[in-house]
């Protein structure tokens, strides 16, 4: 196997049968994720966007309206997001965030992990679709909990009965199309 970086950006990583980087890191269980969320008081969203069609905007809107967390935005190109100040980096925040929720490109994740360790955050949370074992190793070696490939909004809502807020929980478990009563 070559030490070149593969499509996932990891040098020399094992590949599965489909040519994807094999996942070897094991994340926290559901009860452990719930514990992280219960201990959390502040969340910094790295890669927060001013664009309402972006996932980070949707998550930020949910966290501001439906969670008890103090939410901070990190985006060096924005000055304000959802009426709150945006900061250029984690180091510029007025608090040390408990959770660093990351919406950044794969190659940026190890750097964000280093920054989270440097500021003293407690958890590095990589959103759905984000998996970077190098970033996880950096964060864990720095004493942080790590969650990857999970949405903070979905996890919070699922543990606190709010999945219906975005239409995820209809209360009906079926694969059949519902018919309207006549």
Which terms summarize this structure?
182 residues; alpha/beta; Rossmann fold; seven-stranded mixed sheet; 5 helices; 27% helix; 15% strand
- Do you know the CATH architecture? 3-Layer(aba) Sandwich
Mean pLDDT metric: 84
How does the helix and strand content classify structurally?
Answer: alpha/beta
Largest sheet: number of strands, sense, barrel closure: 7 strands, mixed
Radius of gyration: 18 Å
Poorly predicted regions are 1-12, 165-174
SSE string, helices as H and strands as E = HEHEEEEHEHEH
CATH structural fold name = Rossmann fold
Approximate strand percentage:
5-15%
| Bulk shape | globular
Number of domains: 1
Biased composition (Basic and acidic residues): 1-18
InterPro entries: CoA-bd (IPR003781), NAD(P)-bd_dom_sf (IPR036291)
Organism: Brachybacterium kimchii
Protein name: CoA-binding protein
How are the elements arranged and paired?
Layout: H1 30-39, E1 42-46, H2 55-66, E2 70-74, E3 80-81, E4 84-87, E5 99-102, H3 109-119, E6 123-126, H4 133-141, E7 145-147, H5 152-159
Helix pairs in contact: 3-4
Short précis:
With 182 residues, the chain is α/β, with parallel strands linked by helices. The protein is 27% helix and 15% strand. It has a single domain (30-163), classed as NAD(P)-binding Rossmann-like Domain (Rossmann fold), CATH 3.40.50.720.
